[in-house]
């Protein structure tokens, strides 16, 4: 990630005191205007001559100080251009171009002598801007009571939104006009105790919108480091969003000292939804990798002892005997097993065998360590030690068995959101992973935060997630953090953050089900900041077949599940279903075995948030291509070309598609698999069922291999 | 501490369901009555037939559950006797007898099925009792909203009190009737931003009272582990105190899981004030040492680079250049020094020389590490790294120089109450101490707690102090924690906690001055739970002579300062004044050089809280005795005998006393030193000035040494 293939940095500096200034993106499509009106600072954005953001205020309320929101004069303005190409350790593309025009406006508040700088970076796909507080005696240590940044919309746009919340993003998306958010808020909050909206018009980022004129607008943030997570609160009379920062335990938002900078506030905009998916702006606004040697960071495809607990077939806990467990004191060796503990040695070895047989890199095991008897909902401080296995989990035996089979064990650190406890044990827990050869950890932050009263998305806890990532890097450990704050591109800087959950994942399909079009929204929202450990690959949609007491239904077809391996980009991909289900549908399972997890090129063929998207990706190294299409609630014909393939070459494509009568609700396991010959000139018209989709694997073929195959 | 010299444990068990039961102390002076009245549990205490505690309620409010305060029946009662003698690692005596009668009452609340046990231990000097919550399905994890323990006084006693406060005990004591507390509260709070009373009748423990009948009653707690610090709130119509627990950031008091136990609530009572000082009940109610090898725990007498900063002559900070410091980023090597940095190499070496010359064990240096420029009042998270010295502090050079002089360096870890930051750096900081040979650390918790919103005395932060002590023990490090919670005898269990501040120390004599009788109260209050690093030994009372901008006056005479080395017991004793002041009064300084810091026997000769106390102690090993007398506001004649000396032996006593016209306010440096011959039959009548006192060193002498000396 630190090798720049191509670097051009043209810095042209100007300095003046005009009170309005414009900046164009490199291709001229985006136009930023900064202006001062009666001492207030405003910015606005146009795309191809159309207004996207109307003049919107900038500034802050500072605790025990005058506002830093008016009385400004512009004391300096600098413009520059930047163009580089960098190579991520893993990603949707082998190289990423970072090309923008920049304007830095220095604002001085004469009445207080305080200075604030707003740095705008205008890319062809949108705008990023942040505030910078230079070192100054009159603003040394300070507390932001409120960030006043506005995003003034031009109308009552359509939005895909989830309720603003300080602790969870695990919501289904609601599609509505901005004016309808207030009325739909109550319904948007599902029966999950962790969901607690802060306002009737508060929503989370990334927020994907669409205007009546067909503009796609996305609001998010980049490089959330040492700051509070930004939500958006809507003035639904004027369609103005204002930043709403997550408070800490004492109600305050952000503690800073100068020099300081905020995260970038980002606005991605295009008249083509595919450009939203293709944007790398969020990564580009983050710093280059701070990890020198990244050779140990490697994408992984994995299975796990997990879905059986999620569905309620087995348990994380070993025993039902103890009303309360005291780590280091409670004696599990004499406890009566509950008979349904998933993380037992035999079951784990069965999964290792399965992984080895089918070429998976790793096996995740949850519930291996003591403490699951009372881990949830008890505000328990010393809840896990991350070291001590249950009596039926033979840690060394499993470690050696996995090694003998060429499979890597993936560690699991559920913290129960007891953050101090995790930090106290972190060094030892990471050392333990090193000692036993675990390359990656799935960490979890389920439940209310300890220190009590704090929130998952406050500055204090954001700093914890960052601490966990940086400390893991010291130990050469990859992190896949669940229930942590949604990512903002920091994996560019810390590429050992290989995935996050931080949205409503597949588990909710066993908790009552998610919307069938959920996966057509996530790539426009959650995925912009970094990969999601969505844990796809569910083949058995009737959860009651796994656990008679669980009547959940997975709102998806098998073809849709396969497509997710392409559409939900992640360097960490799970095949989440039970091994026996894969053995039952071994022909469909072949796609999961074949699909790559690291990419040279990605092509966004079709896209409409909430309705469909089709992506083609070229695997790194092998020359193979994989295509995924996911579809919303309505049956739809997807039409794509294959001009991404090398001209003149012949390929064999295996198409895994919904059967004609497939449907997420009543016929999800109806799929067809066919092999066809394709070239760069081929076209495909393929129907996708409601909640369905298709997946295609494509590899170059000799003439002999194409014999008898139909040409597309 | 783990060797029991003598151990008798007679356990006699009874079981019945009577609703009132009494227990006598081993000598029969104390009588506890436990009774049930309409399902409510009450206890009361008598001393020599006089009521001390009237029937007082027991119980709890539990969050989201019915009260655990009524509807009780007694389902089991057990009585037993315990008698052991144990040997502390350091202390006021070589051996401590732990002798009590015990009654454990099991209470069952029929309406909920919950069970609560109250364990009473009745010593000859008072009562300790605690609540125990046995493991039970109906009370597994729970939150104490309020502890309802009452201490119903028999009248409007006199009390020595400091205001209830969640964050500091650094108050002067107020002497008043209980009924006067409300009216005096405002005045009791000095101009110190950290002082914030929670109630107009709230006071802290340990609380020393005296009845009109001449009974001395002390309320405190023992073994404060994983619980919130108890204050007392007074119903001043009925003179009933109720426990007032310190809340955490979210307002809740205590999070527990069963089995659990509270700290002991203690009532020490006697008709002789000396018995309060002689009580070891607080230690006895704590568990035996958990440190196996205690050979590395050694009392220390030390000097330091400290008083010069406290008085404002020099500074902790190295430079005045930076409005804000970023640890690891700010470059101090190029900063302009402020010219008054105390912790510079030359000054430290001067102190090492002084320590070596006069036989001190150690040198404390504050302000050695970067971060002091903006450490206070900024709610700064990453405020210190505990590793990086300022450019003018040659860590290795100083370390080697000290070693060559046979002096040990004492580490200083000011945390600025940024507790998470300290825990993140603690392992490395302790390792660093091991690497450089620092045997002890003075830690500090000045300012508001981080995590923000929490309090110094909440369960969460109490757990931090404990974590720091136990982690230090792993590294064989002694801890002297300042601004931490006041001690409750846990040094029995963790004898590496060699001292605390946790009260108004000598530093306040340079912050405007403390009351002249302050040191006649502390041994009855603060000192009951463990030694105080009071930092005595101030010889120059006019602080403006050190710093012309500081008009503070030390309200004490030199003789009083010397006596503190005896009366304020601590295994860690500082000679706090500047070396030049000791050189000026080298004859008085001799006592500080001579006085022991670890004791075989202590004899409490005279005592009246707020007025005077006289203590004689025999040094461990040498056979020398030292006597200290401190006096309150009125000039007083102290009359003591020397029958603690071995009969038939002749000793030389050096008496350091106030001159006839000495006075803490206008003539503090007037003292006399005389040598006399004493035997076990000698008597001394010695005047002590207002705010004065005397100190005596006594050693066995040959006949030749006694020649020409007057016999007392």
Word description of this protein:
2 copies of one chain form a homodimer. With 712 residues, the first copy, chain A, is an alpha+beta fold. Chain A folds into 2 domains: 2-284, Beta-galactosidase, Chain A, domain 5 (Distorted Sandwich); 306-312 and 341-593, Aldolase class I (TIM Barrel), CATH 3.20.20. Helix content of chain A is 16%, strand content 34%. Chain A has 13 helices and 38 strands. In chain A, strands 1, 7, 8, 9, 10, 13, 14, 16, 17, 21 and 22 form an 11-stranded antiparallel beta sheet that branches. In chain A, strand 9 (114-123) and strand 10 form a beta hairpin. In chain A, helix 5 runs parallel beside helix 6 (395-404) and helix 7 runs parallel beside helix 8. Chain A is globular. The model of chain A is unreliable at 1-18 (pLDDT under 50). Chains A and B meet through helix 7 and helix 8 of A and helix 7 and helix 8 of B. Chains A, B: Keywords: Calcium. Chains A, B: Residues 24-288 form the Glycosyl-hydrolase 97 N-terminal domain. Chains A, B: Monomer.
């Amino acid at each position: 990630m630190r090798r720049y293939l191509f670097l051009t940095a043209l810095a042209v500096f100007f300095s003046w005191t005009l009170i309005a200034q414009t900046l164009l993106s490199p291709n001229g499509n985006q136009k930023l205007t900064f202006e001062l009106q009666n001492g207030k600072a405003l910015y606005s954005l146009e795309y191809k001559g159309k207004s996207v953001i109307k003049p919107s205020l900038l500034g802050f309320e500072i605790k025990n100080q005058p506002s830093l929101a008016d009385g400004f004069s512009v004391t300096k303005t600098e413009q520059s251009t930047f163009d580089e190409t960098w190579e991520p350790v893993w990603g949707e593309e082998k190289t990423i171009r970072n090309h923008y025009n920049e304007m830095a406006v220095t604002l001085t508040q004469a009445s207080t002598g305080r200075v604030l700088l707003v740095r705008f970076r205008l890319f062809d796909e949108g705008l990023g801007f942040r505030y910078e507080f230079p070192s100054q005696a009159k603003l040394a240590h300070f507390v932001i009571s409120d960030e006043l940044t506005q995003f003034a919309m031009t109308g009552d746009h359509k939005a895909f939104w989830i309720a603003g919340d300080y602790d969870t993003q695990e919501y289904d998306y609601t599609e509505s006009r901005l004016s309808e958010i207030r009325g739909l808020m109550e319904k948007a909050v599902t029966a999950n105790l962790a969901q607690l909206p802060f306002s009737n018009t508060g929503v989370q980022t990334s927020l994907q919108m669409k205007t009546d004129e067909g503009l796609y607008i996305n609001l998010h943030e980049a490089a959330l480091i040492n700051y509070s997570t930004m939500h958006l609160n809507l003035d639904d009379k004027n369609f103005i969003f204002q930043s709403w920062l997550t408070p800490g335990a004492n109600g305050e938002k952000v503690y800073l000292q100068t020099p300081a900078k905020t995260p970038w506030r980002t606005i991605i905009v295009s008249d083509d939804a595919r450009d939203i998916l293709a944007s790398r702006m969020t990564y580009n606004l983050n710093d280059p990798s701070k990890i020198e040697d990244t050779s140990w960071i490697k994408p992984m495809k994995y299975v796990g002892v997990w879905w059986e607990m999620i569905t309620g077939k087995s348990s994380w806990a070993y025993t039902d005997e103890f009303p309360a467990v005291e780590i280091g004191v409670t004696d599990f060796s004499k406890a009566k097993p509950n008979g349904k503990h998933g993380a037992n040695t035999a079951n784990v070895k069965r999964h290792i065998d399965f992984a080895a047989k089918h070429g998976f890199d790793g096996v995740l095991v949850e519930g291996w360590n003591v403490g699951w008897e009372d881990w949830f909902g008890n505000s328990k401080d010393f809840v896990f030690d991350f070291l001590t296995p249950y009596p039926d989990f033979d840690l060394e035996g499993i470690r050696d068995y996995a090694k003998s089979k060429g499979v890597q064990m993936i560690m699991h650190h559920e913290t129960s959101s007891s953050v101090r406890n995790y930090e106290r044990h972190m060094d030892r827990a990471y050392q333990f992973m090193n000692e036993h050869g675990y390359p990656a950890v799935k960490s979890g932050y389920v439940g209310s935060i300890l220190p009590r009263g704090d929130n998952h998305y406050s500055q204090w806890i954001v700093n914890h997630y960052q601490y966990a990532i940086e400390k893991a890097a010291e130990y050469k450990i990859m992190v896949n953090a669940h229930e942590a704050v949604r990512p903002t591109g920091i994996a560019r800087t810390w590429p050992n953050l290989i995935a996050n959950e931080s949205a409503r994942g597949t588990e909710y399909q066993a908790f009552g089900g998610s919307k069938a079009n959920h996966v057509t929204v996530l790539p426009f929202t959650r995925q912009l900041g970094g990969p999601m450990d969505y844990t796809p690959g569910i083949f058995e949609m009737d959860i009651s077949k796994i656990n008679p007491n669980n009547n959940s239904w997975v709102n998806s077809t098998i073809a849709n599940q396969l497509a997710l391996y392409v559409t939900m980009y992640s360097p960490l991909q799970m095949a989440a279903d039970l091994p026996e289900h894969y053995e039952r549908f071994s022909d469909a399972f072949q796609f999961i075995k074949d699909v790559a997890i690291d990419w040279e090129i990605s092509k966004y063929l079709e896209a409409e948030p909430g309705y469909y998207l089709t992506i083609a990706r070229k695997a790194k190294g092998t020359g193979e291509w994989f295509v995924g299409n996911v579809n919303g609630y309505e049956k739809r014909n997807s039409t794509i070309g294959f001009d991404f393939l090398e001209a003149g070459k012949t390929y064999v494509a295996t198409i895994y598609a919904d059967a004609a009568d497939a449907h997420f609700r009543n016929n999800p396991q109806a799929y067809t698999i066919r092999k066809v010959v394709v070239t760069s000139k081929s076209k495909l018209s393929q129907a996708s069922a409601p909640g369905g989709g298709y997946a295609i694997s494509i590899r170059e073929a000799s003439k002999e291999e194409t014999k008898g195959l139909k040409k597309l």
